[in-house]
Amino acid sequence: MNLDPNGGPSHILAEERLNVFALVIYIPDPLGRTLDDLRRELVPHYNPHAHVSVLPPRPLAADWEAASLQARALTGAWAPFDVELTGVQVFPVTDVLYLEVGSGASELRRMHAAMNADALQFEEPFPYHPHVTLAQDVPHEDVPAMSELASRRWAEYRGSRTFRAERAVFVQATQDNRWIDLAEYSLGSVAFR
Length: 193
Description:
With 193 residues, the protein is of the alpha+beta class. The chain is 26% helix and 30% strand. The chain contains four helices and eight strands. Strands 2-1-7-8 form a four-stranded antiparallel β-sheet. The protein starts with 16 loop residues before the first strand and ends in a 7-residue tail after the last strand.
């Protein structure tokens, strides 16, 4: 299913799509909307959709449909779980500002390890670290002020900081730095006897 961010058919031409894919778990509202608003406040030119990446962006050596079948089989056998977002942090090498994952991080690491194989395998430049990106590709000198603002906004947030990981979405990057949803998988959709 090729869907745009609003759930309708995608009208992005094949030549506008990059060989860059990811597997993400979107964060439901109201937490997701709050994180989208915060990301837009920090980096106004972004059009975010808050998520935790199970498989960070990667090229595929195989056809995306083959990778999708693998993702479907693995997610279907994975029970839903809770994910808690904790504090604002900064990756030192890349200056990426993010929210740390508390509970649920070990489950995400296991999921990543199981899925980063075969058609989905990729040698990542950094060890997998479950997180929610708040800002990236910003000047180094702006990071301390952004981090302070993000920490203040996160402290002001009064809603739940936990969400249920129930679905994963296979996404593809486009030339204009957007992501389109290709397929959605329900965690735990395969019953074992």
